[in-house]
């Protein structure tokens, strides 16, 4: 009775109308009795019911597309298999590609490696190791065929191009230059045979140079070599005989009784020259 009022207004002889409280389905009224005997009223919201969430099953991530060996492309002896975890080297098509022996079987990891919190392994395997040397020894989990020269998918953007080929000779060697700038060493291949050279060079801007050169004369592939440079690919070919090479690439047309000379002094030397310089004997043969 002693609680002061909280609002003001005009006097009235009519009793105020009190609206009946509307029941609320979301509110529960609870009454508790305190230590001093007073009743305490408080409200608690009705706990919301959680609806089951339907989630569509997730499709497993697609496996990475595995590379295939291009059997039509020549492989250089000693080339290591490109599959992860294999490490075997190419010997020959009969042993490493077409055979059914142990050397033709590739045991590899089809998925990439994973390095996490010091542990190392492959996504396709459960085994994890701490040391990098042990990681290199993890045996592959899948068997298949080796990949020495991966098949290349020719996209619409890839273009075949031509590269200039120059050469000069000494009495024992033929030096060949293929002017292909910034050749991709990992993807490109150069195969030296006794009578031919095979080039498959990948260049910037999705360009590719592919050519087979039938040589003018026989060479020794075991003592011949090649090397990649920033602007070209250099080959040193060991002649199998002492003949003079009139041209680099073998031709069906008759070249006539013309041969190159060696060791000519002064500005008339033919070794490394852009134009062929003939001695008096060969020059008279052409004029005749």
UniProtKB/TrEMBL annotation:
Keywords: Metal-binding, Repeat, Zinc
Database matches in Pfam families: CHORD, CS
Domain of life: Eukaryota
Segments forming domain CHORD: 81-146
Annotated segments matching region Disordered: 1-77
Residues of the CS domain: 160-249
InterPro entries for the chain: CHORD_dom (IPR007051), CHRD1 (IPR039790), CS_dom (IPR007052), HSP20-like_chaperone (IPR008978)
Sequence ranges of Polar residues compositional bias: 1-13, 43-53
Gene Ontology molecular function terms on file: metal ion binding
Protein name (Swiss-Prot/TrEMBL): Chord-domain-containing protein
């Amino acid at each position: 009775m002693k609680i002061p009022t909280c609002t003001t207004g005009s006097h009235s002889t009519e009793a105020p109308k009190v609206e009946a409280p509307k029941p609320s389905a979301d509110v529960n009224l609870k009454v508790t009795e305190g230590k001093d005997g007073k009743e305490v009223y408080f409200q608690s919201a009705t706990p919301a019911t959680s609806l089951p969430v339907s989630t569509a099953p997730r499709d497993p991530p697609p496996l990475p597309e595995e590379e295939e060996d291009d059997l039509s492309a020549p492989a250089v002896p000693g080339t290591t298999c490109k599959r992860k975890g294999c490490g075997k080297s190419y010997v020959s098509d009969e042993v490493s590609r077409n055979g059914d022996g142990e050397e033709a079987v590739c045991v590899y990891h089809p998925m990439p490696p994973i390095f996490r919190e010091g542990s190392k392994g492959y996504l396709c395997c459960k085994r994890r190791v701490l040391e990098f040397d042990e990681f290199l020894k993890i045996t592959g989990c899948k068997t298949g065929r080796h990949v020495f020269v991966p098949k290349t998918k020719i996209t619409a953007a890839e273009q075949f191009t031509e590269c200039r080929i120059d050469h000069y000779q000494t009495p024992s060697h033929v030096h060949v230059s293929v002017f292909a700038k910034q050749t991709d060493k990992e993807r490109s291949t150069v195969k030296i045979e006794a009578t031919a050279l095979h080039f498959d060079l990948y260049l910037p801007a999705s360009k590719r140079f592919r050519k087979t050169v039938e040589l003018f004369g026989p060479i020794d592939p075991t003592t011949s070599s090649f090397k990649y440079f920033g602007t070209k690919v250099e080959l040193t070919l060991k002649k199998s005989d002492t003949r003079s090479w009139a041209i680099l690439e073998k031709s069906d047309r008759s070249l006539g009784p013309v041969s190159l000379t060696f060791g000519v002094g002064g500005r008339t030397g033919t070794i490394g020259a852009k134009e062929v310089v003939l001695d008096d004997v060969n020059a008279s043969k052409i004029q005749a």
